Amino acid sequence: MAVARLMVIAAGVNKDMARIIAGIGTSHIPAIGAAVDNGKTGEAYWQPLMNGIKPAREWMKNTRPDVCIIVYNDHASAFSLESISTFSIGVGDVFPPADEGYGPRKVPVVEGHSELAWHIAESLILDEFDMTMVNDMPVDHGLTVPLTIMYDQPDAWPCKVIPLSVNVVQYPQPTGNRCYMLGKAIRRAVESFGDDLTVAVFGTGGMSHQLQGERAGVINRDYDLKWLDKLVNDPESITGINHTEYMRETGSEGIELIMWLIMRGAMAANINEVYRFDHVPVSNTHYGLTILENRL
């Protein structure tokens, strides 16, 4: 134990403080949740996807973060066009599954980590990010599907969760650079929290897809994978991509990828990509997954 602690100190990590150990980028396609909930994952259509996420689930089982900060977008479940916040953080103790028109998903209630969430909210606001603090909100597939992807169907989610909702629906959405810098501020906030906690940050949504209009069903796998290479190895090179390029290259919903930049900003500059998987199509979407670990 003493040797392990000396190794941690030598690596510049304070074991008595919270620390971000991993970043996960994953699509949050609602059809995945429906397939799992309704026992359809054994069907031929779903087998490539389910086989592809098995290594991620095994990694999660071995890594076991105490808290997951899940960056996602609400789909008119907790918020509406009556009031739109760019960034909202859930600071409550519990977050029930939302009814998205066909009843809530039969998944465990999401348990929050209120103390850490309030600490992050305070740190971000004092760091000049205008966060909306939300005590009570249901969480929809944007948050629960990533949990299903990584944890399957447990009786209770094995981690505490801090929801961080981003407006990627109503123009003007935040820039990729603002999201990346928010991730860096989240890292500072977590590392100033005085409890021994391991934290994973999820960036969810995307990859390329469009749900309506003449270009409905557009998928641009080549662009997505080049973007993902840069996210891993040179994230600052993609922080300046504007809304028009995302719409042109990845469809109207492809801008959800900016939420992955929050995750990447929360990671160290030097990281290891321990797993990557993508599959086309899942529903009418390009499914993507990456798992990153900080390089000591």
Write structural notes for this entry.
By secondary structure, the chain is of the alpha/beta class. It has one domain (15-294): Protocatechuate 4,5-dioxygenase, Chain B (3-Layer(aba) Sandwich). The chain contains nine helices and ten strands. It has helices at residues 2-10, 30-37, 47-63, 114-126, 141-151, 176-191, 221-233, 243-250, 258-266, and strands at 19-26, 67-72, 87-90, 94-95, 110-111, 132-134, 160-166, 198-204, 271-282, 285-294. β9 (271-282) and β10 (285-294) form a beta hairpin. Mean pLDDT is 94; it is low at 1-11.
Give a nutshell description of this structure.
This protein has 296 residues and is an alpha/beta fold.
CATH superfamily: LigB-like
Q: Which strand order do you get reading across the main beta sheet?
A: 6-3-7-2-8-1-10-9
Most strands sheet: 8 strands, mixed
Beta-strand proportion = 15-25%
- What string, H for helix and E for strand, traces the elements in order? HEHHEEEEHEHEHEHHHEE
Strand segment count:
10
Helix percentage? 25-40%
Q: From the alpha carbons, calculate the radius of gyration and give it in angstroms.
A: 18 Å
Class by helix and strand content?
alpha/beta
**Count, helices:** 9
- Shape, per Cα inertia axes: globular
Enter the CATH topology name. Protocatechuate 4,5-dioxygenase, Chain B
Assign the CATH class: Alpha Beta
- Report the average pLDDT across residues: 94
Low-pLDDT ranges: 1-11
Highlighted features:
single chain, Protocatechuate 4,5-dioxygenase, Chain B, disordered N terminus
